Amino acid sequence: MRPSRSVLALALVLGATGIGAPAFAGGPPHANTQTAPGEDDLSPAERMAERFPQKVRVGDLVGLPLLDFDDRTLGFVTEVARTPEGGIVLVVPVGGWFGRGGRPVPVPIETVAILGRQIALLDIPRDDLPKLASWTAGAGQNVPADDMIRIAITRR
């Protein structure tokens, strides 16, 4: 018994479109690739240097959302300040309602990276953010909005 032309045509169409063939993903399954701060011997400044820091205008950072590794908004940057030790911090209110309000905490610039029009928190676990000391207005000096600073870049 010989297969009909319609059966052969159907087999060719299915084979050409991939229907009926097993589907394979284009790479390994997604895994949480965020390294915990204790998994390497690098300081936050050394980690930041490996993330290709780029210049950014301070005024462009104010108002951006701070995201954890699961892309949940932790808060919005309200100011960029310089500590008495010379470090730069992003001041983000934590513990408010939908990322607004809450207690302002300083997030060191070495622990974050820019992710498009968002800022990703990389080296501080989400649960540790509320444990940071509160930021007071006199604790540092505001960085002017036109100043340029360096911030690491990342992607997901």
Fraction in beta strands: 25-35%
Radius of gyration: 24 Å
**What would the CATH topology be?**
SH3 type barrels
Termini separation (Å)? 56 Å
Structural class: alpha+beta
* Helical content (DSSP H or I, runs of 4+): 10-25%
What global shape is seen?
elongated
CATH architecture: Roll
Q: What is the string of SSEs from the N terminus onward?
A: HHEHEEEEEEEEE
- List the domain count as a whole number: 1
CATH top-level class: Mainly Beta
Can you tell me about this structure?
The protein is of the alpha+beta class and 156 residues long. The chain has one domain: PRC-barrel domain (SH3 type barrels), CATH 2.30.30. The protein is built from 3 helices and 10 strands; from the N terminus they run H-H-E-H-E-E-E-E-E-E-E-E-E. The strands form 2 sheets. Strands 1-10-7-8-2-3 form a 6-stranded mixed beta sheet. The chain has a 4-stranded antiparallel beta sheet with strand order 6-5-4-9, with no helix packed on it. The longest helix has 13 residues. The protein is elongated, with a radius of gyration of 24 Å.
